[in-house]
Amino acid sequence: MQRKAECLGKREEYTTLLFIIIRLNMIKKNNVAVVLMNLGSPASTEVADVKKYLDEFLMDPRVIDKPLLLRTLLVKGIITPFRAKNSAEAYRSIWTKEGSPLVHITRQAAKALSEISPYSIYVAMRYGSPDMQSAFDAIKEKQKEVEHVVLLPLYPHYAMSSYETAVEHAKAIHAKGKYGYSISFVPPFYNHPTYINALANSIIEYKNKYNCHLLFSYHSIPVRHVEKTDVTGEHCFKNANCCTVPSAAHNTCYRHQCFETTRLVAEKLGLGEKEYSIAFQSKLGREAWLTPATTKRMEEMPQYGIKKVMVVCPSFVSDCLETLEEIAIREMENFKDAGGEDYVFIPCMNTQPMWINAMQELVNEAVKGHIKL
């Protein structure tokens, strides 16, 4: 009887495995499509196009979470009229013959991913072009057999102004369009081994070549946003060690996730505590944002004897204005003006093979998670 039960058990395992294989083979026959979602960029470096982009971006209630009237006054009456010209100049300093670096790199990454993936790969931006509706429409028109679409927001860490707004926007466009396929999302991958390995791999060449302090510079967000996404309502910033004390809040805590990425990569690279540090860049406005600020760290490090630094930006998987202009140009000038000597900018993972493979692994996990047994 025991042997018979063991045989039946194995038979059930084989049946389950066979079912998974069949479903995966069905999926490979164009039943699934993938959309890479990134932030976006102005259509050109003309002030009018930059202003249009900034208006769309900053009017998002998950970016500037103020009441509509106040947000409109701030964005269209104060911020964009004064910021558009300077931003246009900044974009001109990094613009390429292909246009926006972020959009071009995302398209190149999609092309590289399509070469190793059984799924068709599309690209959508949260703001600007190509937009989310265009991607959904293209799938509907080109692949009528698609039953499910996996969306990969290219934000490793959860923040209401990046990952959350991308997901909620895609959901709204999908519901409004009444598309015949379902959708699901790859969750934040800040601690996923395949992302950590790819990120560490993008740094190792520079670590081996330069004897420099490594600064992890993450995009900053308002402290209020961290508190707002605290699902417990009683954890974030309630004590000095909130990011290291286990909590359900960490699932949506940007600050914790940045610290965790840093810890895992430093561990992977074998860095000692004094060989690296963390900072937050790109602050907008006067209210409290995450600290320490990257600009302040650049001014302070030479005073503390750190005169050689290399900077990596783990919030971004594709190089963009915040990496190519803010970090590679402006912050280098700040560092050297403060007495710094050697400054090394580490590019984002962009289309590095290890990152392309990592994206495919993330997508595969999402597809398998969608299969109903």
Structural commentary:
This protein has 373 residues and is an alpha/beta fold. It folds into two domains: 32-187 and 352-370, 3-Layer(aba) Sandwich (Rossmann fold), CATH 3.40.50.1400; 193-345, 3-Layer(aba) Sandwich (Rossmann fold), CATH 3.40.50. It is 51% helix and 14% strand. It contains twelve helices and eight strands. The chain has helices at residues 2-31, 47-58, 68-92, 101-114, 132-142, 160-177, 193-209, 223-228, 254-269, 294-300, 321-337, 353-370, and strands spanning 32-41, 120-128, 148-153, 182-185, 213-219, 276-281, 308-312, 342-345. The strands form two sheets. A four-stranded parallel β-sheet has the order 2-1-3-4, with helices on both faces. Strands 6-5-7-8 form a four-stranded parallel β-sheet, sandwiched between helices. Helix 7 (193-209) crosses helix 9. The two termini are 28 Å apart. Residues 18-23 have low confidence and may be disordered.
How far the N terminus sits from the C terminus, by CA atoms, comes to 28 Å
| Tally of individual helices | 12
Beta fraction: 5-15%
What Rg, in angstroms, do the CA atoms define? 22 Å
CATH class of the largest domain: Alpha Beta
- What number is the mean pLDDT? 93
Number of domains: 2
As residue ranges, the low-confidence spans are 18-23
Q: What is the SS-derived class?
A: alpha/beta
Instruction: Please describe the biggest sheet, giving its number of strands, its sense, and whether it closes into a barrel.
Output: 4 strands, parallel
Numbering strands along the chain, what is their spatial order in the largest sheet?
2-1-3-4
